[in-house]
Amino acid sequence: MIFNSFVFWVFFAVVLALYWRLPHRGQNILLLIAGYTFYGYWDWRFLFLLAFSTVVDYFVGHFLGRLEDPKKRKALVVLSIIVNLTFLGFFKYWGFFVNEFGDVLRVMGFTPHIPVLAIVLPIGISFYTFQSMAYTIDVYRRHTKPAPNLLDFAVFVSYFPQLVAGPIERSFKLLPQILSERRYRKGDFSEGLYHIVIGLCKKVVIADNLAPIVNHIFDVPVAQLSGTEVLLGVLAFAIQIYGDFSGYSSIAQGVSKWMGIDLSYNFRMPYFARSPSEFWQRWHISLSQWLRDYLYVPLGGNRRGPRRTYINLMLTMLLGGLWHGAAWTYVAWGAWHGALLIAYRLVGVDTSGKSEGRPWVSFFQTVLMFGFVCVGWLFFRAESWDQAMGMIGLLLTDYSWTEYSAYAAAMLAFFAAPLMIYEWFVYRSDDMLMLLHRPVWQQAATLGYFTAMLILFEPLAQQVFIYFQF
Amino acid sequence: MWNKVSTAWRAPFGRVLILVALGIVVSDVTLRVIETRLSGNLAHVAEIPSLVDAAAATRRPALLLLGNSLTNNGIAAEPLRAAHPLGPIAKLTPDGTNYWDWQCILEHQVLARADLQVDTLVLGYAWHLLSDQTQPDPSSLGALFCRATDALKPNSIGLDSIGDVSEFLLAGSLRPYALRETLRNRGLALLIPDYARLTQLANVNQEAAKQASGPKKQFTYAHFTALADKLRARGTTVVIIAMPVRGEYDIDEELRALDARGLIVLLDYRATPGIDERVFKDEMHLGDQGQQILTRRLVGDLRARSVAAR
Known about the structure:
The complex is a heterodimer.
Chain A: H1 6-19, H2 24-40, H3 46-66, H4 70-107, H5 125-140, H6 150-158, H7 171-179, H8 188-219, H9 227-257, H10 276-280, H11 285-296, H12 305-324, H13 328-347, H14 359-381, H15 385-397, H16 403-429, H17 440-456
Chain B: H1 2-10, H2 12-34, H3 40-57, E1 62-66, H4 69-74, E2 89-92, H5 99-111, E3 118-125, H6 138-145, H7 162-173, H8 175-178, H9 180-191, H10 195-213, H11 222-233, E4 237-242, H12 253-261, E5 265-268, H13 288-309
Helix pairs in contact in B: 1-2, 6-7
């Protein structure tokens, strides 16, 4: 059940119609049923995994709240981490490591006969595993109180708007909202609708219409491409993955808003970032914060001198890359971003504040950073290391303009340019809900444009959300 | 109603919503007025009832030529008079249609009319377009060929999910949504260089990749068999033509069995002498020369059948 399907909207209409007629406890029971229905719609067998992870983390949290003995508390949190990472490791990385191990053995001259398990990756496992695991760590650190009962905790883990592709919500933000009574506030409808329409437009109109161009360029053998086509393919992918993922997050926010629950912003115009650290404060914010709080800081962060800081940055980004999937191209993507963070620190570029009065410097920094991000996307999207390197080679040597380049450039301009212009205004205003604070005619014109695009430019083939695979 | 609108108008966002809704209503009405001028295909869809009326008005048994653009480009109507000299000939060949659209056309335009007698239905198809597994286009069904009440029995028109039914109903009630493909193609053809050709190429490659990666399907013909039964009960001979296309496809055994049973007449024109790469005008459709060759063959076959029948 994906957000860009009629099935979801029928499902959501039924949930919403019941939701506001129920008392608080009834709402939570409904949310739990809805979450399991939503998740089980893909494959009911995955529900056992979700339920098991929920039960283990609930009881770990429960006992952590009661125990005072540091050793026992530590043992409990380690148990939760092991259970969660075992699930994640088995379903997501087993095949990868077995294949790599087999390759190593072959290089050493052995002929291994390693059994291959056809493991289906449960959708969104990385998201809910991280959310659930963060809860037990936060209870262990006494940053959050244990959930008072299994029902509410199960709702926290299986809350359907953000279950399969985030944002990865932290317990101290989402759990209190689940525990307290929701009220429908003035402005919730308009804000929710705004998020939903923009999110659907980003996903359905922008990402899905650029998908065939990206697929074509990354499916064709490198020898048959020109550098310009590669450039446009990578640009199209940068917009596609942004539209796809930020679109999902936006719809999740809107849907949740209509149920009186606030979700975090997962994206804040990342392509206008002027440095890698700013990029990571704007791209997949909930994962960046997770990695910062549960990996980078425990590793020592920047408290143990520059060299250790660089090592910590690189390790964090490598694991961040691996979180996305079991492939060397994701590791390369993580390493690239780690190297960027280190390089910017070494050079000492500070982009923490707005560069008032230096617009050209700011513009140059933004373009340069976007270029670096696109190189990273090339590794991310490439099917293999050889393909990525071949494409980079073409980018540096071949500037021929083909008829496919003209087609791809025009499609990119038609679908992506209006969104980027709109986002530029939002970035400048520093107000994510800028549109809702504009005059009525501007709101009507903008919402009208997005609605018209949604009605008319639905893609020829429906695409699932890219981030579901992570 | 008016009170609700005026209350909504007082809130700023209510005004936004009313203006957006007004824009949608205006575009819907505008499209309903001008839609036959948007494309030749929409004009053809709009004229289907009048073509059927004209055939019924003659009070003679008609020959109905049905299909999609393969049939439209592949068979000319006028030369068929040689094989069907006494009755009217109606050619109904809207683009991008398949079994489910044809079924709705036949149910609502032919079988529902007592004043129309069709003695021969010639139906051109390719690949597995007549099978139960053919993907319906809920939008075209909802907006152009079926009736809203058909949604009460969604399986009978190939709709198998809530999503399909929702799309069917939305397309039936909102013209901009129903005609989005036409509007999109017209708009992007103006703005994007080589839009039609490169998009068609991408679609062909994508479809080929999907076919190659997907498991081999079993094709069944339960819906088509029931429809053919109904037509035969009305005295209509159902002639099915396996149309020539670039590339190859198989005729499913179940369809051949219907021919062997005598429920339909299956004409296999996939390999027709004289039809080769040179007589196609694009990736899929026959040009004028190909049309002449194929129509001649059809006329010959229909005449031979009528002589045999006598």
